[in-house]
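Dear U.,

For the methods section draft, I wanted the exact inputs and outputs in one place so we can describe them consistently. I've listed the two proteins in the order they'll appear in the manuscript figures. Please don't edit the token lines directly; just add comments below if something needs changing.

First protein:
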Amino acid sequence: MQDIADAVGVSQSTVSRVLAGAAMPVPISPATRQQVLDMARQMHYRPNPLARGLRGAGTMLLGVIVREITDPFFAGAIDAISVEASRHGYNVVLGHAHGRTDEAIALRAVLETRHCDAILLVGDTSDQPRLLEDLHEANVTVVGMWQGSAALPGISTVNVDNRLGIRRLIDHLVGLGHRSFGFVGGSFSFAGGRPLGDIRERKLAFLESLTEHGIEVPPEYCRDANNNFAGGAREFEALMALPNPPTAVLASTDVLAIGALRAAHRLGLSVPGDVSVVGFDDLPVAEHTTPSLTTVRHPISEMAAVAVRAAITDVSGESSPIVECLEPTLIVRESSGPAPSPRRGPPIATPAAGEVVPA
């Protein structure tokens, strides 16, 4: 700013007020104001967000702590958050918690009040009470995304309706005549193999939906796997090795479902001729697998808009927390088809491949 002031021939305080759009105690001519702005552009001036934070002004930075950055679903979520933040004039500072409590606490120290106006937690952090407690006590707005429907104390959350998405998948498969089901749920090795948040909800919804259809699922037909392609393949093979393998396998994420598709090919099984495979998330690659994957799509852009708006509308953290649960969409593609065994009941009308069904 001093360089700009010297070049234009005004005081540094005048430059500061012009760039900040602040009122001047002594009116400044439009020509001088334009000179300051033109010289700032010529010198590639950019405000320092950390310096703004030290002065008590907003930094226009949003901190994003991601539970599992290697999950391709969260990569898309981060992109949507960044686009939405940019629409409001904010930049994003990314932190990777890697699911470890000590790392998440260290990140909190970096992404706290003086550096970020608000923090978004992306992915379930319910097993990290210390992180949540520290964030709650810090003078910074926190919004959780994809935490599962359970409300976090004092923290706004934006989630997808997992139960509705799973129910739509089950109705679709039952309508195709399926009466024998397997489930592959994703968990994370750093959480001791315990399914978290969204995954836990999807498993419960799977069992509840089939109970409503009068279909019982033996325990061995529900498998837990690390949330990666290899985990999905391994547990799909275990299901196919059962004396009476299921005719439909529902994977709690597209990553697991894609692993299952690979395993089916390796086993010489036709999908959906021998077994139907469906997922949840609608990753960009889901449309391009062979066969293309029937799945459930998150309203990612809408969720990002709600979360960013909640984060920036009250950077003081004094507003009452919100809990939003948005509806997903069933996407029917080629990986789901009629049950290979004789149907035990009349099929229900079901969408054709490629049809988008609002949930």
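Second protein (the one for the lower panel):
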Amino acid sequence: MAKKEVTVEEKLRALYDLQLIDSRIDEITAIRGELPLEVEDLEDEVAGLQKRLDKLNNDVTAQDDNIKGKKIAIDESKQLIKKYKEQQENVRNNREFNSLSKEVEFQELEIELAEKHIKEFKVQIIQKKEIIESTQEKINTRSSHLEHKKGELDEILAETQKEEQLLIGKSEDFGNKIDERLVNAYKRIRGNVKNGLAVVPVERGASGGSYFTIPPQIQMEIASRKKIITDEHSGRILVDLELAVEEKTKMDKLFAKF
């Protein structure tokens, strides 16, 4: 059985239906506004702050380990000092005594240096803990803000997601009724105009959203629905007002079911 040929009028109706569906999807996207991007930015910010907090905590742990290491080194030096002093009591000459004295002096310097490092580590820990506290406060504040924004987004999604998915499906269905070349032209025009209107009706002698008058002869050709006509100024596909009203009434009934 031969495939039924689609008339120009049927193509125009399908194109305008597709426009009405895509415009409704645009409205839903506008309702969400910048919320998805805000949520994404907040998630990235909280993740970045958490990463910084983890590094700071790791730094504090490392400094604690350094302090423990220095304390062990101090204990070892004290043990060596005790040992060298005991050995000094049994030396046979001044050379041995002086040699042990140098070892004692060296270990005392080691203790002094270790204690200096311990003080430095403790100061660094105090500084890092202050930063940790302020970072945690930022995380708490931004996380609270994030939860609030996610709640807003979830609420909007709950209201619109089902409708949006149904509309996207309908957009694909109506797009399949039109030949690929025309669909590609429609998408290209939609991408080139700021309000996404690629198919508009002729109203008061001008194309929708335009102040440029369309000559009466062209208006008659548009109303005849015998060929696809575009606005020479905006590039939009033009349909007559009667067709637009009929299709909008039909599509409004469809949208009401969603």
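Candidate sentences for the figure legend, describing the second protein: The beta strands are 199-203, 206-207, 229-230, 237-239. The helical segments are 8-32, 35-88, 94-176, 180-192, 216-224, 241-256.

Thanks,
Y.
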